[in-house]
Amino acid sequence: MSTLTMNAGNSNTVNNSSINASTIGSSAMMEVTGLRKRFRDKEVICGIDFQVLQGEILCFLGPNGAGKSTTINIITGALRCESGNISYCGADIYRNLTAYKKNLGIVPQDLALYEDLPALTNVRFFASLYGLKGRQLDEGCRYALEFTGLMDRAKDKVSTFSGGMKRRLNIACAIAHRPRQLIMDEPTVGIDPQSRNHILEGVRRLRDEGMTILYTTHYMEEVEEIATRIIIMDEGRIIAEGTKEALKAGIDKERHYEIDASYDECPDAALLYQIGGINEVAINGSRIAIAAAKETETLDKIITTLIAGSVRINAIASRTANLETVFLHLTGKSLRD
Amino acid sequence: MDNFKKILGMDLFNLFTNPMWLAYAIVFPLVLVLVMGFLTSASYGSTVTSYDYYGIAMMIYIIFNAATFSANGFMEERVKNPNMRLVYSPVKPFFIHFSKVLATFVFCSVTFTLVGAVLYLVVGVNYGGGYFGLIYLLMLLAIFFFSALGVMVCCVLRSENSTNQLLSIILTLFGVLGGLFFPLDGFGKAISAISWMSPAKWIFSACMQIIYNRDISMYLPACGVMVMLSAAAVGISAKLFKGEDYI
Prior knowledge:
The structure holds 2 protein chains of 2 kinds. By secondary structure, chain A is of the alpha/beta class. Chain A folds into 2 domains: 3-249, 3-Layer(aba) Sandwich (Rossmann fold); 254-319, Alpha-Beta Plaits (2-Layer Sandwich). Helix content of chain A is 31%, strand content 30%. Chain A contains 11 helices and 16 strands. In chain A, helix 5 runs parallel beside helix 6. Chain A is elongated. Mean pLDDT of chain A is 86; it is low at 1-22. Chain B has one domain. In chain B, helix 2 (19-39) packs antiparallel against helix 3, helix 2 runs parallel beside helix 6 and helix 4 crosses helix 7 (132-157). The longest helix of chain B has 31 residues, at 93-123. Chain B is globular, with a radius of gyration of 18 Å. The A-B interface holds A 73, 76-80, 98-99, 101-102, 104, 106, 108, 110-117, 125-126, 128-131, 173 and B 3, 6-7, 10, 13-14, 17, 78-79, 81-82, 84-92, 243-244, 246-247.
């Protein structure tokens, strides 16, 4: 179980108790080595290596253009790489690509649905391509539609669905054949919080049912909520890898204060640096950002110093490490940049 | 093969349930032939009527639409994303593009037959009498070629917009060179020779010779040209098709 408290301005407590880490296998289900991909003159994947363990939710986190979707598309076998090896259960995926693809369920970033057809017809068609027939196909479709909460709309045309329902149907089409490995490429883009929560809850349930899940997103909150392991990517490279606790532990030596202040004369940063334990001060308009050593109690001294300098403090937010700060620490830029 | 049948079934469903395409494949050719035939009826005699001429010439021109249908059935936004899921699924890449060719062929053959039957019954277009079977087979071969052409251009250009733009130029050129809008014989030997580069010229000439001269000498070469061009288009598509263009 892990609990993470985010900054005061956006207070949010996330509980991962439903994820049972003991069911994660220690053996690699998939092994990727030396993966490289180039689009024209630009190398978008720069020789990355990673493993996918059986039963885990492996999240790829990174800003847009980091190479997450390209990596995912190569793993699906739909996109060829310039060099590198991808083995699944010890065998090169390209040796028998069709057989390999039968193990996968893919939730593409774009909605891959026939809008003029009913939801059930969509699920039936795509599931049938994986060899499901007769009763097995019926059961698979029922399972997928019930799982995504769309059973009561099974006979309705997709064009009448809301954005969130289409996203859920996009997932139903990927799981009706009960794949061993589910690959989800930003499945919550552009949907309402209720549908998003439904999808994230579903991801955890699928994982509890034994599916291995690869999940890409640039939403840090989603990764915090569902990941059992995280790969952080930027500019085609893996810049960090591990559990969220391990990633945060690496930089969890500081406490960050964000102070909303007003003043007639800009406060002197040098005065703040004189306080023991202050590592960084950044003053940007009414926003004063301070990084202080975690083991030193500095807040009262910061407040005193600012008030002494005729600074009016409107609000103070305090936060410890989260994946956003991990990314910031590793790359010097924000995930949202 | 089972997956091919499923994909073909879905492609046929998408074609036959698109009201705009149905109208374009049935209503448009009927109106075109009837209007052209009516407007030019005074220029033709009673043995060979204007409807006889445009019943063949415009119907060949209408066959060109097969290229547009297959290109759109392959890359149109409405079907492009679902096709993306086909790329991810355990389906042979050949099935994905060839099913579009075959589905368009079936769709256009059915609508073409329907339009031809209506024109025969309403204005009595001459389709060769006892040679009708030969004419019909040649038309079907032409429909297959143009279906394959549309998909091939998609595989080459990898863009629906570029494909539609290029196809409209190519098809108009084929129509003009084939003498479908007006005869090119009066434009000299050079133009006449160039006109044989258009598949429409082969089909149109073979049809006219069979119907009015009972001469089938052009028939086998015309069929041969259609078969060879179709094989080339399907082969090029297979070579150039990349599933990653969908993702």
